Amino acid sequence: MANYTAADVKALRDRSGAGMMDCKGALDEADGNVDKALEFLRLKGLKGVTKREGRTTSNGLILARVNGGTGYLIELACETDFVAKTPKFVELADSVADAIAAAGAETLEAALAANLGGKTVSEAINDEAAIMGEKVELRRVASLKDAAVDAYLHRTSKDLPPQVGVLVAYSGSDAETAHDVAVHIAAFSPTVLSREDVDAETVATERRIAEETARNEGKPEAALSKIVEGRVTGFFKENVLLEQDFAKDTKQSVAKVLETAGVTVSAFVRFRVGA
Predict the structure, then answer these.
(1) CATH class of segment(s) 59-192+262-272
(2) Residue 47: what pLDDT?
(3) What pLDDT score was predicted for residue 45?
(4) Rg of the chain's alpha carbons, rounded to an integer?
(5) Looking at residue 96, what is its pLDDT?
(6) Every domain range in the chain assigned CATH 3.30.479.20
(7) What SS3 state is found at 154?
(8) Contact, 71 vs 144, CB < 8 A?
(9) Are strands 115-116 and 119-120 parallel, antiparallel or unpaired?
(10) Predicted pLDDT of residue 264
């Protein structure tokens, strides 16, 4: 007869992030002792590290840290949404984000080497992944600096931690407008700040496709130039932040809203889990 209760199983799941059957098996091995069961899960997980290497991590969360004019955005990834929403995984992500911000890490390599409780971030993640029984990885890190940085995290489901995160680096005193732009970026996912940031090859490709499409549609030769320019402009409006229609007032562009507010955006970054 099992020497533990349903409450013990829940406690172990909360502490470890492991699945129910794994927790029951560990408690069986530990004769109902939750602490020993936790150690059993860790040892079992460490033995399975190599097996987990090839697994896909398509779930996880996005977190941000902002300290004055410096902001950090991270994606901590795992295999399943079950683990992604466990308190243990969220706590790990919080600790990792704090360590990265404290170290001022601006690259993934520097972030993985940052100190976290006497270990590197990489070691701390691997230790917790061993208990959870899933592959967990710090997939990417971004850092922005300016006079100020705004962060916005968006939940795509009430049951999951934030799946989309945005940082906006800016100068100007209207923090509310800067935040509104961060929310806009989360929703409309622009790829660049201004049209000057789109490389010439991409523009040339879009122009060529627009011209070929117009010809195939039988458009008059005299109208081709205007049609092509209109479609290229449409490409810019879809992908360039400053040229997008502002989410809260589609009669104005993002550029116009920022100009009116006296805010200048120097950079932004947007992460979505698994994207």
Answers:
(1) alpha beta
(2) 45
(3) 58
(4) 24
(5) 98
(6) 59-192+262-272
(7) strand
(8) yes
(9) antiparallel
(10) 98
What CATH class is the domain 6-47? mainly alpha
DSSP bridge partners of 271: 165
Q: If you ran DSSP here, which 8-state letter would residue 196 be given?
A: G
Mean pLDDT (10-residue bins), the chain, 275 residues: 78 72 82 81 56 73 96 97 94 98 97 97 90 90 98 96 98 98 98 96 93 89 90 95 97 98 98 95
What is the helix, strand, coil percentage profile of the chain, to 5?
50, 25, 25
Q: Rounded to an integer, what distance in angstroms lies between the CA atom of residue 254 and that of residue 187?
A: 13
> What six digits make up the tokens of 66?
């902002």
Helix (H, G, I), strand (E, B) or coil at 200: helix
The pLDDT assigned to 54 comes to: 59
Asked if 139 contacts 84 with a C-beta cutoff of 8 angstroms, the reply is no
Whole-Å CA distances, 46 to 100, 148, 154, 274 = 24, 42, 33, 25
Q: Which tokens is 105 given?
A: 């890490």
Residue 246 zone, left/alpha/beta (φ > 0; ψ -120 to 50; rest): beta
| Among candidate residues 80, 138, 148, the one with its CA nearest the CA of residue 113 | 138
Query: Cα–Cα distance between 7 and 32 in angstroms, integer?
Result: 11
Where does CATH 1.10.8.10 sit in the chain? 6-47
Q: How far is CA 166 from the centre of its chain?
A: 8
Predicted local distance difference test score (pLDDT) of residue 48: 47
**Residues forming beta bridges with residue 119, ordered by sequence position:** 116
Q: Rounded distance, CA 89 to CA 77, Å?
A: 10
The CA distance from 154 to 163, in Å, is: 6
Residue 153 bridge partners (DSSP): 165
